[in-house]
Amino acid sequence: MGRYAPAALVAALLVATALAFAYTEQLKLTPSPIIRTTVTKVFSPVCRCETGTAAVAFSLRTADRVEIDIVRGRSDVVRHLIVDRAYPKGRLEVTWNGRDDTGDVVPEGAYKPRVKLARQHRTIVLPNVIRVDATAPVVQLARLSPRVFSPDGDRRADRVVVAYRVSEPARVALWVDGSRAVLKKGQKTKGTIDWFGTRDGASLPQGSYRLELEAVDLAGNVSPRTKPKQVIVRYVALGRKRIEVPAGGRIAVLVLSDAARIDWKLGARTGSARPGTLRLRAPFQPGRFTLTVTANGHSARAAVIVRSTGP
Predict the structure, then answer these.
(1) Euclidean distance between CA atoms 124 and 35, whole angstroms
(2) What phi and psi, each to the nearest 5 degrees, are found at residue 138?
(3) pLDDT at residue 74 in the model
(4) In a shared domain, residues 19 and 69
(5) Based on the domain organization, do 26 and 104 belong to the same domain?
(6) Is residue 309 classed as helix, strand or coil in its secondary structure?
(7) Tens digits of residue pLDDT in 265-282
(8) Which residues form the domain of 226?
């Protein structure tokens, strides 16, 4: 009998191998008991945002008793989401908050859902990877120009261009005086944002504004804002707000504007000129007048006090 033992063992091994192969092939041909799977790709368990949890959803072909775990690697269970609970045929969805069974946030990395179906004696590790990312991106304001602009629609210095770099793919937002003004589309790690002097769809008045950048990565982590940079919205400005001049005297006032031409009015007289030093003759009668300078629909004013030249 002893001499037949090795042959019997080999035969048994061959039969077992053949049965295992046949079972594996049968599983390949058997439709999966789980269909229409959707799993969150990346999330942040510390962001306190809409992407603060991961969703695991699929449909059961038949009713079963289900167990769902989150595993790292091949079989390292970090969280039991569902333990031996009966579910009917149809859609099933659970969420994971990125914490283990003790309530601690899990380390950053890749995880997968594992589904056990008790009645079918099946254990399926879903191929969908869930990436836990709890690190905020870092955004840098690389360049900003010009510092003075006039968003008046004449295509001359109408916008500020802000160039940025981000440490990882993220959406970048421009904040103006503490309010978000522009949200850049896409998640590229470098690019530019154009700001046309608007916020909440409305044009801002002439003045000084503080610009900052903020980035939100794919998981929902928010970066610290960049150091504020000042820019000036200027449509038209005069070098002096009050001008005193003798009757019929000469007036010279600096006009700052990006417009090609400006219009002026002093008393009953009007005219047009280029920005720069505006030279006019004062009225011949004493009194108080207003010099109005207009550029592309925006105006600046100065008081003109004309003194008498007599004794």
Answers:
(1) 12
(2) -120, 125
(3) 79
(4) no
(5) no
(6) coil
(7) 999 999 999 999 999 999
(8) 139-233
